[in-house]
Fold each of these.
Amino acid sequence: MKIAVIAHDGMKAEMVGFLRENEDKLVGAELVATGTTGSHAEKGGLKVHKFLSGPMGGDAQIATLVAEKKLDLVLFFRDPLGKHAHEPDIQMLMRLCDVHNIPLATNPAGAQLLLDGLYGKSK
Ligand SMILES: O=C(CO)COP(=O)(O)O
C-alpha cells in the first residue's frame, strides 16, 4: 500500500497526530509526502519519502504518481480557511484522484474512515 500524505500548514500537527495514532495500521505502508508535511512526519518519528514542498511543485509530483496509478490512497488535510498560491496544483491533484478513481480524503474524519475500512477499527 502506497499512501500520499499532505497537509496545509494549519493541519500539519493534526496530520502528524493522525499518522501516529494510526501507526499500527500503517506499519506495512509506504508513505510519500510533500516536503514540509514529510519533515513534520519525520520529526514525529515516521518514515516517509519527501517530495518538493507543495508550493514548489510537491502537489504536482504527487499528482503525477496518481496519474500513473502508483498510489493507492491520498490523505490531503486541507485548510479550508487558507489561501494558497499554488491552488491550481491542489485542484489538479484532487481532479486526477477523481479521473483515476484513487481514494482521496481531505479531512481527518474521512481519512479515518478510509483507514478503518482498509484495516479495520483498532479502538
Ligand atoms: O502545500 C501543500 C499542499 O498543497 C503542502 O506542502 P508542504 O507539505 O510542503 O507544506
Note: Residues 6, 8, 34-37, 53-55, 58-59, 84, 90 surround 1,3-dihydroxyacetonephosphate (CB under 6 Å).
Amino acid sequence: MNAEQRKECTVCLPCRRAKRYNRYNIMEDYIKIKNLHKTYPTHDGPLEVLRGVDLSIRKGEIFGTIGFSGAGKSTLARCINRLETPDKGEILIDGVDILKLPKQELLKERRKIGMIFQTFNLFEAKTVYKNISYPLEISGFPKAEIKRRVLDTAELVGLSDKLSAYPGGLSGGQKQRVGIARALVNDPYLLLSDEATSALDPQTTLQILELLKEINKATGITILMITHELDAIKYTCERMAVLEDGLIIESGSVNEIFHNPHSRTGELFAKVFLEFQKADSLMNGEGI
Ligand SMILES: Nc1ncnc2c1ncn2[C@@H]1O[C@H](COP(=O)(O)OP(=O)(O)OP(=O)(O)O)[C@@H](O)[C@H]1O
C-alpha cells in the first residue's frame, strides 16, 4: 500500500493505528507510573516486590526495562495490565489513572493493553485462527469483524498461511508470532513484552525483535519491553530503565546506560554484554 492509499484507508488495522498515533506528540510522556508498590503474602511473611516504581514512557516508543531474575519485572508488567492489583501508586495513561477506573471501564482499558510472554501461553487445542480470534470472541465482536481483524493481523505478523495449523505444529518463532497477533488483534495502544524472546534461539530472537520494530513503526503502538537480555534492548530501544530489587534505579538513553552505567545492575549487564561481544568477534575471527 502506498502513502496515498494509506491516507485514504479507514479499514485495516495498521492504518487505523497509524492515524490514531499521529494525533499524539511522540515526545510527550504517555504512560506515567508513579510510586507503584506491590507486596505478596507468602509463608514467610509479606514479600515487598515493587517498592515505589517510577517510570515514564513516551507515546509510540519501544521502552526497555531490564533487571535480574526476581527484580520484579513480571510483577510490574502484571500490575500495568491489572492481572495484579498494586497496593499503592498511580498508573496514568494519557493523564487518566487506570487504577481508579470503575470495573467496566477498567475491563475496557485492559483490552487495550496487549501482552506477550516467554512461554507464548497459546491454546494448544485451538487453531492459529482461533487463538488469534479469542480476545475478540470474548469481547462479543461480530463474526465478519472478527474475520477481518484476524486476517489483517495475521498478515501483519506473517502468519497468513498458518491460520488452520495448531500450535503443536509450529516453531518457537511462529508460536510467538501467534502470541503477538493475539495481543494486537484488539487494537491496543500498549504492548507489554515480558521476556518474549528469552526462550528463542538467537536467530529467531532477531526475527521477532525485527517484527516488533516493524509493527511499532507501522502502527505507532507503544511497547514496553521487559527482559534480562541487554542485547534485545540494545537492538530495539532508544530509552530504557534498570529495575533492581523493586525500584527503578536508573533510566535514560540506552547508549548512556550502556556506556556509563550508574548502578551496579547496569554495570553488570553492560559488562556481560561487552564480554559476549568480544567472544563473538573472536569467534568470527575479527580480533578485538
Ligand atoms: N503471586 C506471587 N506470590 C508470591 N510471590 C510472588 C508472586 N509472584 C512473584 N512472586 C515473587 O516476587 C519476586 C519477583 O518476581 P517477578 O516474577 O516479578 O520477578 P522477575 O524480575 O520477573 O523475575 P524472573 O526474571 O525470574 O521472572 C520473586 O521473588 C517471586 O518469587
Note: The chain has a mean pLDDT of 87.
